[in-house]
Each structure stands twice: as structure tokens, then as C-alpha cells.
């Protein structure tokens, strides 16, 4: 604080300034050194606040060069359009058209599944439930040959006999009974779908020794099993499967051919009505 006192003696009076600091603290004050002011350090943004910045300082020429490497420019597009060529099929040695000649005398070969779908559609149009013809093979002889009274005597005389036969969707399976004349033996089934114009054979596999309680339990026998595959295209009404059995043991062949007539199976079919809820699935998978 400073006190001001003075006397004014007219217009030319003097003014005296008295500082209280000089009265209570007569020591002279040290000179003050100048203070240098530093600018604040640059603040870096936090990872959460950092955002991609787009600077306009990037040279325009560099940006255009990068775009030219990834996308074709106008001149390149025009070059690609010039490279496009049109070729006709006759230039490659092929015909421009295909001609199919139909003769009245020739019956067209229509796939069965196409005919089936046409018939199914016609039956559905008239409100008639569709039907399926399922083919199957049926034996022209008793399927359980071992149940016949003459089976034991026939086995003794022939040394080999068809015992039982089963027809299923997986083919023809059956069992064969042979006399145990030696340890090493072979049983084969020869079969044909063409009335023996062509034929093939399959080897039966050994199953077990003859079991007690059957009609030939007093004989020393072996049981063999065989399987005859039936291709789907064979399953046509009127088709016939024939087979015979050959038993080879000790250098001799013994046959069972159903007394010279062979064992025959004929193909038949039975109709199955398709349920209403299965009609669409049947048309799709047929």
C-alpha cells in the first residue's frame, strides 16, 4: 500500500509519495529475473478418440496411380472392347443345326419314367388314385425243398440238394445241403437270364455242419449258402431265371438240376395303390 500526502501551495505545489513498504521494510528488493514462457507440449489423442484423418496433402498423382493399378482406365476399357470377338459354331467345324428324322414305322424310344409320369398325371386328372406295378421273382418249385418227404433219399443219391430258397428285393438267396465226402469241397451255382445263351456262376460259402433234429440228421452233411444278384433291368414281366447246382469233391462233379429241368423263377408284378399324401413324392423321385 502507498500513502499519498502533500501540500498544495497554489498552483505550483509539489506532491510527495510515501510507500508504506519503505517504512516497514527499508531493505531494498532484489531485482526480478525475467521468466521464460514455454508453449505447452502437444497433446496426443487417446486410442478411443483417435479417428482416421483425411489429409488433403496427399499428392493427387499418387492417388490416381493407385486407382489405375486396380481399375482399368478409359483407354484400357476401350482396348478390352476391341478384343471381344464373335465366333460362329460352324467356324469350329460343327453344324449350325441338327436334323432329326422321325419315321412312321419306327416306334419312338420313350424312357419308362417319362411314360410313368404321363400316366400318373392323367390318372390324377381323372381323380383315379395312381398305382404302381412292383416286379418280383417267384419260384416255380417249392421254396422249402428240405420239407419234402423224398429229400433225404434224393440227397443220398445226388450228394447235393437245394435245401431252401428265398426271394427278396436284394436278390435270390438259398441254402444247399451236401454230403461230407471230404474236407476240401466246392459248391457253385450256375444261373442264366437268357435261357442259357449266356450264363454266369457264383461260389457258395460254407455255413455250418449239418445240425441235429432235421430230416437228414443221421447223415454227415454240410450247409452252404449262395446269393444271386438280380439287376433292376431284368425285373420285367415274363423274365425267367434258371439255375443249377454243382458240387465238386474228390475230383468228381455232382449236380442238382431239379431232375434235368433246372430250377426256374419267373418274374411277376403286383399293383400297389399310392396314398394321396405320397403322390407328389412319387412323381419327384420316379
UniProtKB/TrEMBL annotation:
Biased composition (Pro residues): 27-45
UniProt-recorded name of the protein: Protein phosphatase 1 regulatory subunit 3D
A Pfam family assignment: CBM_21
GO BP terms in the entry: regulation of glycogen biosynthetic process
Top-level taxon in the UniProt lineage: Eukaryota
A single GO cellular-component term on record: protein phosphatase type 1 complex
Residue stretches of biased makeup (Gly residues): 1-13
Lineage: Eukaryota, Metazoa, Chordata, Craniata, Vertebrata
PANTHER family: PROTEIN PHOSPHATASE 1 REGULATORY SUBUNIT, PROTEIN PHOSPHATASE 1 REGULATORY SUBUNIT 3D
Compositional bias (Polar residues): 53-62
Positions of region (Disordered): 1-78
Domain CBM21: 152-266
InterPro entries on file: CBM21_dom, CBM21_dom_sf, PP1_regulatory_subunit_3
Annotated GO MF terms: glycogen binding; protein phosphatase 1 binding
Amino acid at each position: 500500500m502507498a500513502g499519498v500526502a502533500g501540500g498544495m501551495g497554489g498552483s505550483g505545489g509539489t506532491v510527495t509519495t510515501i510507500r508504506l513498504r519503505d517504512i516497514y521494510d527499508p531493505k531494498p528488493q532484489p531485482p526480478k529475473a525475467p521468466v521464460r514462457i514455454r508453449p505447452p507440449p502437444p497433446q496426443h489423442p487417446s486410442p478411443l478418440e483417435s479417428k482416421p484423418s483425411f489429409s488433403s496433402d496427399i499428392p493427387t498423382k499418387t492417388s490416381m496411380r493407385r486407382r489405375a493399378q486396380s481399375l482399368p482406365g478409359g483407354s484400357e476399357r476401350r482396348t478390352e472392347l476391341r478384343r471381344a470377338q464373335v465366333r460362329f459354331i460352324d467356324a469350329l467345324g460343327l453344324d449350325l443345326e441338327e436334323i432329326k428324322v422321325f419315321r412312321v414305322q419306327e416306334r419312338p424310344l420313350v424312357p419308362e419314367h417319362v411314360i410313368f409320369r404321363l400316366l400318373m398325371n392323367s390318372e390324377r386328372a381323372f381323380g383315379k388314385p395312381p398305382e404302381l406295378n412292383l416286379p418280383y421273382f417267384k419260384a416255380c418249385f417249392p421254396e422249402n425243398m428240405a420239407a419234402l418227404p423224398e429229400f433225404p433219399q434224393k440227397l443220398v443219391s445226388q450228394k447235393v440238394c437245394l435245401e431252401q430258397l428265398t426271394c427278396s428285393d436284394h436278390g435270390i438267396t438259398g441254402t444247399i445241403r451236401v454230403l461230407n465226402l471230404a474236407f476240401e469241397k466246392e459248391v457253385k451255382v450256375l444261373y442264366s437270364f437268357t435261357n442259357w445263351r449266356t450264363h454266369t456262376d457264383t461260389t457258395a460259402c460254407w455255413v455250418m455242419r449239418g445240425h441235429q433234429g432235421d430230416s437228414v440228421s443221421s447223415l454227415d452233411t454240410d450247409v452252404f449258402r449262395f446269393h444271386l444278384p438280380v439287376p433292376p433291368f431284368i425285373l420285367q414281366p415274363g423274365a425267367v431265371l434258371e439255375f443249377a447246382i454243382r458240387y465238386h469233391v474228390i475230383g468228381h462233379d455232382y449236380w442238382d438240376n431239379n431232375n434235368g429241368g433246372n430250377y426256374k423263377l419267373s418274374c411277376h408284378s403286383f399293383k400297389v395303390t399310392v396314398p394321396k399324401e405320397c403322390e407328389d413324392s412319387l412323381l419327384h423321385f420316379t
